[in-house]
Amino acid sequence: MKFPIPHSLQQIASIIQSEYIGNADFQVLGMNEIHVVEAGDIVFVDHPKYYDKALSSKATTILINKKVDCPEGKGLLISDDPFRDFNKLTAYFKPFQKANQNISDSAMIGENTVVQPTAFVGNNVVIGENCIIHSNVSIYDNCIIGNNVTIHAGSVLGSDAFYYKNRPEGFDKLLSGGRVVVEDFVDIGALCTIDKGVTGDTTIKKGTKIDNQVHIGHDTVIGEKCLIASQTGIAGCVIIEDEVTLWGQVGVTSAITIGKKAVVLAQTGISKSIAGGKTYFGSPVEEAREKLKQLANVKRIPEILNRIESK
Is 218 a known active-site residue? Predict the structure, then answer.
């Protein structure tokens, strides 16, 4: 998430009321999570296990809960609670905007696009040409929809990331300031839910087709010409490469990669990255041929036991 204009390190420290280390005029351009940071971004870290990763990342401003040596060419923001202060920055730069009508005046809708009655199109949404947005679809603020996209009834694009910090008093939500970006020729079925990125984009690339009742988590990137069948659940920060097929009720854990042209059979649980060009099945996931052999052998166990007992 980039700021509308650059801010200085001192200005950012003033917003969150924190101490800073570095040049007061050090330029800060935006904020992001560790997996998508770029030069000019703020990243937050609140656990010693990840200090080195954050300090050596592409981020040039680190929001951290311990005084450490400031890396050359970077700035530090010292906070007793980086999670809280990262939320303060999200709320400051991407505050919630109340809607006053079903289609916002700030939305941009292309030629020959049809938005059916009872659909909601939020602030700063962009929808391309020749799209059909069916009834009861909700497209939250800042989403980007390409050309020739169809979104069926009841789907929600841009809901908050499922991202919480467990505190003694309860779960503390990490605010979401990112977007959903849907490229050209994408079809999205009925009752799908697609969470926006925490600071970046949840992206569905050109030509992908999504069945009914599919969930896609925050910051996930789905490649071109993928097929995703009904009741599949995909967690956050997943990378699905081009031409992947996920059949019904597949479950995908967070922060993994599914390789190009992989095919995953129904009711598979994917708990690790898998290579492309192969067919997979089962939970935990394995290549389908091997998994089906194992299941066939399991069925033979009573026969084998009978043989042993009869000897």
Answer: yes
